[in-house]
UniProtKB/TrEMBL annotation:
Keyword Signal included in the entry's annotation: yes
Positions of the Ig-like domain: 20-103
Top-level taxonomic group: Eukaryota
Residue ranges with Basic and acidic residues bias: 122-154
Lineage summary: Eukaryota, Metazoa, Ecdysozoa, Arthropoda, Hexapoda
Signal peptide bounds: 1-24
Record organism: Drosophila willistoni (Fruit fly)
UniProt-recorded name of the protein: Fibronectin type-III domain-containing protein
InterPro entries documented for this protein: FN3_dom, FN3_sf, Ig-like_dom, Ig-like_dom_sf, Ig-like_fold, Ig_sub, Ig_sub2
Keyword terms of this UniProt record: Signal
């Protein structure tokens, strides 16, 4: 698989909604590769990028995260798994650290009169030292906390999401249905006619069509309602993939038949389509009922004439 340039998206945090909204814009410039697998099979698609990998499936504006990891693995795939998958690589990037300014304050010793006793001076000095000690502890604690916050801010990172690869997954299936199926019937024969769109081939070339028919006219309904008349396979058994009509002979007049047809490819038989039709009733020539009598009358007269001729010949001898 050939490498393609990566589109970069930088986010301060992982905002999935925004991320999926800009996905189409990022990946539209990347040409997609194609993978194909049979329905019910498994497929593994590697990403060309390294690092923290995420796979997204395009659904218009509603894109969803499918898997993480460098290799996208799908098991027992169906037609719903077909579509475009985008490989995103998330790479870390450090941000500028924040500088913390610490301000310290000093406490002034209050002024005292010259008349203060030595005992009072000693007491004041002791209180001043204790106050300075507490203030120094507070400053040290604040400075330590500020340093910890600064270290945490330095450890924050932004992520660069690189849309590096688009893959179109095609799921091959048995053929789809034929269209515009109908039967043009006369009394004892007819034509089965259909259309087929090549986009319904299922991903493999159509090898043949198969057509069958059966008589579904009942003089008396069978006792078992699940009873079915046997299907007769039309000849040839494997109809060429470029044929779009077949002639059927030896049908019965004024009889209802059911026809069905399906396409075949490497994965097997496709979707079956059926149609019902009734053949035309048989027509008879009208016969004049007087004709047989006239014929018989003339025949009788002829016989009498022959007999008389024979008798005349014998009498002369």
């Amino acid at each position: 698989m050939s490498s393609t340039p990566c589109s970069v998206l930088t986010l301060s945090s992982f905002n999935l909604l925004f991320f999926t909204q800009v996905l189409t814009v990022l990946s539209s410039a990347i040409k997609y590769n194609e993978y194909a697998t049979d329905k019910g099979g498994n497929v593994s698609i590697p990403c060309i990028a390294d690092g923290n990998i995420m796979w997204i499936k395009e659904h218009g504006s509603n894109n969803t995260i499918i898997q993480t990891g460098r290799i996208l693995v799908l098991h027992n795939v169906s037609t719903t798994d077909s579509g475009i998958y985008v490989c995103f690589a998330a790479l870390p990037r450090r941000i500028t650290s924040t500088t913390t300014i610490i301000t310290t304050t000093t406490t002034a010793i209050p002024a005292t009169s010259t008349t203060t006793s030595s005992q009072d001076l000693s007491k004041i000095e002791s209180e001043t030292k204790m106050s300075e000690h507490r203030e120094n502890q507070s400053i040290d604690k604040f400075a330590s906390k500020s340093e910890t916050n600064e270290n945490k801010e330095q450890e924050q990172e932004e992520m660069e999401y690189q849309a590096c690869q688009r893959t179109l997954l095609k799921v091959r299936t048995p053929p789809g249905p034929v269209s515009q199926l109908y039967f043009k019937a006369s009394t004892i024969l007819g034509f089965l006619i259909w259309r087929f769109n090549k986009t319904q081939s299922g991903g493999y070339p159509v090898r043949s069509f198969t057509a069958e028919y059966r008589n579904v006219s009942y003089d008396q309904m069978p006792a078992n309602e699940s009873y079915e008349h046997a299907w007769s396979r039309m000849d040839p058994i494997n109809i060429a993939p470029n044929v779009r009509q077949m002639e059927v002979y030896r049908l019965a007049p004024n009889t209802t038949y059911e026809f069905r047809i399906w396409a075949n490819n490497e994965l097997g038989s496709g979707e079956v389509v059926t149609t019902n039709v009734t053949t035309l009733p048989e027509t008879k020539e009208e016969v004049n009922p007087m004709e047989p009598k006239v014929y018989q009358h003339h025949l009788c007269l002829s016989n009498i004439t022959i007999v008389r001729l024979i008798m005349s010949v014998l009498s002369h001898h």
